[in-house]
Amino acid sequence: MNQKIVERIGWAASIIAILMWFSFIDQIRLNLAGQKGSVIMPIIVVVNCILWTLFGIGKKNWQIIAANSPGIIIGAITVITAF
User: Fold this and answer.
1) How many domains, the chain?
2) Which of 6, 28, 44 is nearest to 80 (CA)?
3) Cα-Cα-Cα-Cα dihedral of 8, 13, 15, 18, to 10°?
4) Could you give the CA distance from residue 82 to residue 43 in angstroms, rounded to a whole number?
5) How far is CA 19 from CA 1, 2, 31, 79, in A?
6) Which residues contact 74 (CB under 8 A, 6 or more apart)?
7) Mind giving me the DSSP string for 43-72?
8) Which of 21, 43, 57, 83 has the most C-beta neighbours closer than 10 Å?
């Protein structure tokens, strides 16, 4: 496959991943309203995103870093508000 196409697919996937993290905003809202959700999924998300971000840093792959960095922050906020 053409390297330019692969690069575009990578950035498109990164944008979709970033948008996916915004789905946690609704859970944060519910947590703050007193409807606490499970803490297991956001904890796993944070750990997963940390590992992928470190991998991206090691490979100097900005698409992986961009896709997973927001998950660390939003996942952590979700964990904190679940308590």
Assistant:
1) 1
2) 28
3) -160
4) 11
5) 26, 26, 20, 19
6) 21, 22, 24, 25, 28
7) HHHHHHHHHHHHHHHHHT-HHHHHHHHHHH
8) 21
pLDDT, mean of residues 21-25: 87
Tens digit of pLDDT for each residue in 35-60?
A: 998 899 999 999 999 999 999 999 99
> What's the DSSP call for residue 23?
T
Residue with tokens 């590992």: 51
Distance of CA 22 to the CA centre of its chain: 8
Measured CA to CA, the distance from residue 13 to residue 66 in angstroms comes to 10
Q: Which domain holds residue 64?
A: 3-82
- For residue 43, give the nearest of 13, 9, 15, 81 by alpha carbon: 81
- What pTM did the predictor assign? 0.85
CATH number at residue 74: 1.20.1280
